[in-house]
Amino acid sequence: MTAIGYARVSAGDQETALQLDALRKAGCDRVFEDRASGVKGDRPGLGEAIRYVREGDTLTVWKLDRLGRSMKHLIDIITELEAKGVGFRSITENIDTTTSGGRLVFHFFGALAQFERDLIRERTRAGLQAAGERGRRGGRRAVVTPEKLEEARQLLATGLNVREAAARVKIGKTALYEALKAEKSVASTVKPV
């Protein structure tokens, strides 16, 4: 069984020294590193570490947040490692999936993460349904109000272009273009009486 380490820092000016010391002290002979935000999906060091580990090895990190950008991502990575017969160890949180207690703790974390995702989904659906019943729809409030559209239309009539009119009424030119286009398409569908 070989302990393989993985260290990550978010910014280029940060140092991995603390992590590297802890990983070496934990018995890691080989350590892979990344200097990238945890949000980035493309982390070459992590990819290389996952390709490098073999059945019976243990991928070791200093802290859980060094490996995954979210609980779901962390679970996905550890599930991938388990499928290869590779254990996982987090030094700070004292989680070791090569032990039955460590597997239990990790699966408990996974169940809590799934429960949280399900609750968020349910609350979102219930909120949207309640808003719909009150005649409201989701999404952002319209930037171009009827008053701003009328004011922009008057400015356009004086000879200003769309960019200038949008700047004066404090809206984006793209939003004004879209509002004017929507207004024209509505006007073209209305039949004169």
Automatic annotation (TrEMBL):
<dbReference type="GO" id="GO:0000150">
    <property type="term" value="F:DNA strand exchange activity"/>
</dbReference>
<keyword id="KW-0230">DNA invertase</keyword>
<dbReference type="InterPro" id="IPR009057">
    <property type="entry name" value="Homeodomain-like_sf"/>
</dbReference>
<dbReference type="GO" id="GO:0003677">
    <property type="term" value="F:DNA binding"/>
</dbReference>
<keyword id="KW-0233">DNA recombination</keyword>
<keyword id="KW-0229">DNA integration</keyword>
<feature type="domain" description="Resolvase/invertase-type recombinase catalytic">
    <location>
        <begin position="2"/>
        <end position="135"/>
    </location>
</feature>
<dbReference type="InterPro" id="IPR036162">
    <property type="entry name" value="Resolvase-like_N_sf"/>
</dbReference>
<dbReference type="Pfam" id="PF00239">
    <property type="entry name" value="Resolvase"/>
</dbReference>
<comment type="similarity">
    <text>Belongs to the site-specific recombinase resolvase family.</text>
</comment>
<dbReference type="InterPro" id="IPR050639">
    <property type="entry name" value="SSR_resolvase"/>
</dbReference>
<dbReference type="GO" id="GO:0015074">
    <property type="term" value="P:DNA integration"/>
</dbReference>
<dbReference type="InterPro" id="IPR006119">
    <property type="entry name" value="Resolv_N"/>
</dbReference>
<protein>
    <submittedName>
        <fullName>Invertase</fullName>
    </submittedName>
</protein>
<keyword id="KW-0238">DNA-binding</keyword>
